[in-house]
Automatic annotation (TrEMBL):
<dbReference type="InterPro" id="IPR004792">
    <property type="entry name" value="BaiN-like"/>
</dbReference>
<keyword id="KW-0274">FAD</keyword>
<feature type="domain" description="RsdA/BaiN/AoA(So)-like insert">
    <location>
        <begin position="190"/>
        <end position="346"/>
    </location>
</feature>
<keyword id="KW-0285">Flavoprotein</keyword>
<dbReference type="InterPro" id="IPR036188">
    <property type="entry name" value="FAD/NAD-bd_sf"/>
</dbReference>
<protein>
    <submittedName>
        <fullName>TIGR03862 family flavoprotein</fullName>
    </submittedName>
</protein>
<feature type="domain" description="RsdA/BaiN/AoA(So)-like Rossmann fold-like">
    <location>
        <begin position="3"/>
        <end position="398"/>
    </location>
</feature>
<dbReference type="InterPro" id="IPR022460">
    <property type="entry name" value="Flavoprotein_PP4765"/>
</dbReference>
<dbReference type="InterPro" id="IPR023166">
    <property type="entry name" value="BaiN-like_dom_sf"/>
</dbReference>
<dbReference type="InterPro" id="IPR055178">
    <property type="entry name" value="RsdA/BaiN/AoA(So)-like_dom"/>
</dbReference>
<dbReference type="Pfam" id="PF22780">
    <property type="entry name" value="HI0933_like_1st"/>
</dbReference>
<dbReference type="InterPro" id="IPR057661">
    <property type="entry name" value="RsdA/BaiN/AoA(So)_Rossmann"/>
</dbReference>
<dbReference type="Pfam" id="PF03486">
    <property type="entry name" value="HI0933_like"/>
</dbReference>
Amino acid sequence: MKSVIIIGGGPTGLMAAEQLTNAGFVVDLYDAMPTLGRKFLLAGIGGLNITHSEPFAAFCSRYAERQTELQPLLATFGADALRAWCAELGVETFVGTSGRVFPKEMKAAPLLRAWLARLKRNGLRIHPRHRWMGWDAQGQLVFETPAGNVTSPNLPVILALGGGSWKKLGSDGAWVPLLEACNTPIAPLKPANCGFLCAWSEHLRSRFAGAPLKSVSLSFTDLTGYTETRKGEMIVTERGVEGSLIYAFSARLRDSLDLHGSATFYLDLLPNHDHAHIAAALQTKPANKTLGNFLKSRFKLDGVKTALLFETLDKAHWQNIPLLASTLKAIPLTVTATTPIDEAISTAGGVPFAALDNNLMLRQLPGVFCAGEMLDWEAPTGGYLLTACFASGREVGEGVIRWLAR
C-alpha cells in the first residue's frame, strides 16, 4: 500500500489528506502544534466566513493576478462544492446579507471535529508537535519533537505550511529558507489583509483608538491608475487603521507603499449625501451652535468622524462651506507602513506557480508538492482565502495520486 506524508494540519493539508485516504493511501500528517487547525479555529471565533455566494466569474476575479492559476482549481471545488461538502459533514451553511457564507452555528469547531473524526476513520495518522526542519544528509525528512529529532523516509510529501502570519498558531514562514536552500525560488512574504500605520495626533490616538468607522466610503487610485470606491466599515487603531474595508484595498495600498513610501486614500464620511446637499445644510448652521454639535445633530456624525474632520481641516477654514463640504466627502488619509506581518490575516508571496508542475509538484524537488497559502497568491477576506486553500488542498491530493499512478 502506498504512503504519503503531509506537513501542515490546516484546511489545505486536511483536504489533501481526504483525497488520499479516500483513494486508499496510508497518510501520515505532521504538524508543529499540539492540535490541528488552529488558525482555522481562530478564523471562526467571530463567525466562520467559509466562502462567498457571488457568481463564479466575480468570485474568481478576487484573486487578481493569480486568477488564471486558481480558476481551474475553483472550477473543480468552488463555493457550491464547498457548501455541499460541509453538508456531508452535517454542517448546514447559510448566505448572509453581504453574500458571505457561514456555518449555521457560526463556529469552526463543529466542522473541524466532524472532519477530523471522518479522516481518522479513514485511517489518517496524525503526529502533533512535530516541527519540520528540512532534510538530512541522507534525504530523509527531519522533525523536531519534544522527545528529540526524528526522521522519516522522504516519501511523496505535501507541504501545506501556510504563510508567514500568526506565528503562535503555526504559520511562521520557517519553510522559506528550507526550500530556498534547495534552489526553489520564493517570492518574498508580505502582509496581506493587514492594517496600516498613520501619523495620528495625540488627541485622536488617545480618545478614539478602537473606534469603528461605520457607513463610510473609501476611494483609492492604485498604481495602474484604476480608482475604486467602496462602502463599508473600518476601525481607527492607536497606530492607524484596520478592518474589512481596509483589507479590501490592502494589496493595492501595500504595493503603493512599496513603490512610493506612502499611500493616500480618501474617506467619504457622508456617502449617502452629495456635496450640494451637505453644503446647503451647512448654510443653516446656527451661529451659536458648534460645528461638531451641528454635524452630530444634522448628519449623525459621531465623535471619531468629527475628529477625523478636525484632524484634516484647520479651524480657520470651517467657515468655508464649499471646502468643508468637500472635505467631509473626501478626508485624505495617508498611510506610511503596514502593520507587522505577524499581525496580518494572511500573507502574499511564497512559492511561485511557475516553480510547480500541473500536479503542484516542485520542479526542483520531484516528489515534493506544495499547496495553500504558501503558494504565491492572495485574496481579500470574505471567504476567498479559505475557499482557495480548500481547493488547492484537493488539487494537490489529486496531483499526488496522478503522479504516483504515472
